[in-house]
Amino acid sequence: MKKPVQSFNFFYTFFRPLVEFTTRCHYHRLIVKGRSNIPTDGSFIFAPCHQNALMEPLAVLCSTPRPVVFLARADIFNNPTVASILNFLKIMPVYRIRDGKENLGKNAEIFDRSKSVLLDGVPFCLMAEGRHNDKHQLLPLVKGMFRIAGETQKALGDKPLYIVPTGIDYDEYERPFSNLIVNIGKPIPVKPFMETYEENEPLALNQMRDALQAGLFEQMHDIRSREYYSELNALCNACNKSVRKEDGLRNTAWNRFQVRRRIAQRLDKMVADGCEKAAPIVHLGKEYQRVCAELKFNEKLPGEHWNLALLCLSTILLGALVVATVWKPALLLLLMCYPIILLPTHLIPKKIIKDPQFRSSVNYGIRFGISILYTIVMAVVVGISNGFWWGVLAFDTAFVMGFLSGDLVTWVRGTYDNWRYRFAQLFHRSQTDYLDQIIREVSSSMKA
To answer: Which pTM does this prediction carry?
Structure first.
């Protein structure tokens, strides 16, 4: 008899810390807020927003020490090897209409298995949107989660079941060494909906959906405007530094996320209310995007560029590191132990993966496989040629460099990008001045 997916698995428990470590190394900063909101007095369902395929389950795993069971779209289980890996990771398939009407009946078994997970007190995770997108924007929620929640609460009786809204935010969707925010909200108890559920199930499902939607809005960077999404998103990045400065906030990944949320809310309100300033602001957003595209700038760069003193200091330190490496070639051992820092692996999925939301997941898989294989081979080679403890040192150095790689890559990339900005100020002064003017005008409009 096949063991339930939630059963204890020694190899899962053994390898999970490695998966969590490499997930954290994939990002510059992986920040989890709201862990105190995870229920301790009953079963619960994590309900994250869904913007980056398999990276959301990894983000949830890094948010709790307990094993978590997931549901994922059934079409990724078509390959038997991939299906075996997903089953090992405690991921079950869920079928959609696009998978064929004949397969929808299989969801009854999947929902029963999902209910048994919760009845056993194991955390469960389901993406309530049912599909992913590459925008900071919540999609309409599907009702499968709420049916599972209602049936499970009936079986639990007086024991509580919760739905936990979980905002997940990416600085960059595809490039490694960006920032990832996991923002866990207040749990929503299912019991208050059960009286309505018994009398009018569709109404109760809608009520649960509305409660979760409101909870997710509070935990994520959500731009409501569909028509002007790209313009407003660009301005959320452009004006971030000026708003942080006004509010006296330090330049951290968490503060940038919070400020992006606030800017989006202000701009969305202007657009929704038909404010007379909305049309000029949208126009400025288009202009900002146009000039950034002409100069080949990331939209964050004009607002977040470093001052000249910091840029010169960074350049001196980087130059000193290069000189030290040339002077003492033994320092190259650090990069030799973890060369993947230098490999642009994020470019590989662009050539072979059509769905952009799967590219980061494939890139993570490539980096994970290469890193583990190379680390083992490097440790064995160094150990055989120099002795056992040198092999141990090489093995450990790879993990240290993996931990530091986000800071190193961000430093080098930031130095390069900021010199590009400084050269643009010299040779394209009118355009960089125009970008500064846009940032000032939009920031001023939001204050008034």
So the answer is: 0.91
